Amino acid sequence: MKTDVYLIRHGESFGNVEGRLCGNPPGPGLTERGRSQAQAVARHLLARGVRPAIIASSPLLRVIETAAPLLLVTGRRLVLADPLREVRFGAWEGLRQEDVPDSGHLRAWYLDPERFPPPGGERLSAVAARVVGELGRLSLRQPGGAIVAFSHMHPLVALTLVARGQPFVDHGMYYLPNAAIVHVRFEDGHAEFVSIDPQAAALEDDAVSV
Fold first, then answer.
1. Sheet with strand 146-151: strands edge to edge
2. What is the pLDDT of residues 128-181, one digit of tens each?
């Protein structure tokens, strides 16, 4: 049986506003705009008839806060899943992008995060393996149902590429703003792409953020 999985990027965080690369818990929390996006996502999912049997989240604060409104209205308990965390930024962790010492490496990473990962950080393929693996395991617990999982931009992009059978070099096709939703269906651990909703929160992002 197929399980619908909705992977949602967190709302706007203070790290987004500051342009920081934050992949380690707890990380920054949500801005007021981010909290409004989180509430809008919960309303959006319920309006679509999504009734999750499982709600999972990356362990980072901004993601847990994004999941909170949906938890409140559904009464579900949150499943913390470390594999859903953001890409590991290694030596760049916590830095503002403008303060990364090797701006050339940073530019190369933006163009091809698989070939040029952060120093001591992760390749996009590693992110894909852990995210797809975790969502596949969760889907086996709820065959035929629905799972809502909250995560970060790189995990959403990685899932999209795997589900669509695209190479990691195509990552630039998918800038997914805060509160975007990637919908896939899992069967026997394999992901089938359904859709992307980049405006689930009905709030338009006006700047690229990570």
1. 78-80, 54-57, 146-151, 3-9, 181-187, 190-197
2. 999 999 999 999 999 999 999 999 999 999 999 999 999 999 999 988 999 999
pLDDT tens for each residue of 22-45: 999 999 999 999 999 999 999 999
The CA distances from residue 66 to 11, 30, 39, 113, in Å, are 6, 8, 8, 26
Give the C-alpha separation, 141 to 5, whole Å.
12
3-197 under CATH 3.40.50.1240, yes or no: yes
Q: Taking the domains of the chain in order of start, what are their residue ranges?
A: 3-197
Model confidence at 200: pLDDT above 80: no
Long-range contacts of 27-35 (CB under 8 A, 24+ apart): 27/60, 27/61, 27/62, 27/86, 28/61, 28/62, 29/61, 29/62, 29/65, 30/62, 30/65, 30/66, 33/203, 34/10, 34/62, 34/65, 34/66, 34/178, 35/11, 35/65
pLDDT more than 90, % of the chain: 90
Contact assessment for residue 56 and residue 89, using Cβ atoms and an 8 Å cutoff = no
DSSP E strands in the chain: the ranges are 3-9, 54-57, 78-80, 146-151, 181-187, 190-197
Return the structure tokens found at 80: 């913390």
Structure token pair of residue 137? 């395991």
Indicate whether 208 pLDDT > 60. Answer: no
- 1/186 Cα distance (integer angstroms): 8
Q: Which residue has the tokens 């409104």?
A: 69
